[in-house]
Amino acid sequence: MVFRVLACAARRRRLDAPVMLAALAPIDTWIFDLDNTLYPARANLFARIDDRMTAYVARRLGLPHDAARVVQKDYFHRHGTTLTGLMADHGVDPHEFLADVHDVEMDVLEEDAPLAAAIAQLPGRKLVFTNGDKPYALKVLDRLGLGESFEAVHDIHAMDLVPKPHPSAYAGLCAAFGIEPTRAIFFEDMARNLAPAKAIGMTTVWVDNGSEQGPEPRRDHIDYIVHDLAPWLQHIMEAS
After folding, report:
1. Ranked by mean pLDDT, which of 21-30, 65-74, 172-181 comes out on top?
2. DSSP calls for the chain
């Protein structure tokens, strides 16, 4: 019932750009997750990274593929990232791990001129907040035509290797950039990563595009649900 009510509310807001724009008027910082948020999940880029994570776990722990997959996903759900679990239990070097799993071709990504134009119109600062590392994030942004769209990338190293959804990741982001959470909005495809943002006062947007992992997410910490980012951003600026 909560989902249906919230979904209906989201549709009502979607139909009224002036009302939505007024609600977002205080926002001066626009924060975006990277993978499956700034590009569509159907591109399946992260699937390539996911496969490399499984292969890394298999090699490192001497496990067959299926067993390595189970370990990988267990670490993801319990620790926030596979890397965090591997570091805690096996002393894995994060730089080695990230360089390995991010060594993927990006030919599945295309330049997204409408998204670049929509982000350019947003008033205020724009940041990327990702559990990946900065070199990988910059490659993705360049491939999408978003290389000049953001002030900075706040990556897993900037989080002191403590990833979303740990509250310290959000506190560190705000401290690093002088962000007042009640004047910030956060876009993320993993609903659980929105809960800590909402807890400190951010407006939250779940990019529900099929990439969610795990059980049916709660929605009481989600302000807006969108399925395609660029049209939604364009829509909220229609009344400006």
Report:
1. 172-181
2. -HHHHHHHHHHHHHT-HHHHHHHTTT--EEEE--TTTTS-GGG-HHHHHHHHHHHHHHHHHT--HHHHHHHHHHHHHHHSSHHHHHHHHH---HHHHHHHHT----TT----HHHHHHHHHSSSEEEEE-SS-HHHHHHHHHHHT-TTS-SEEE-TTTTTT--TTSHHHHHHHHHHHT--GGGEEEEESSGGGGHHHHHTT-EEEEE-SS---SSPPP-TT-SEEES-HHHHHHHHTTT-
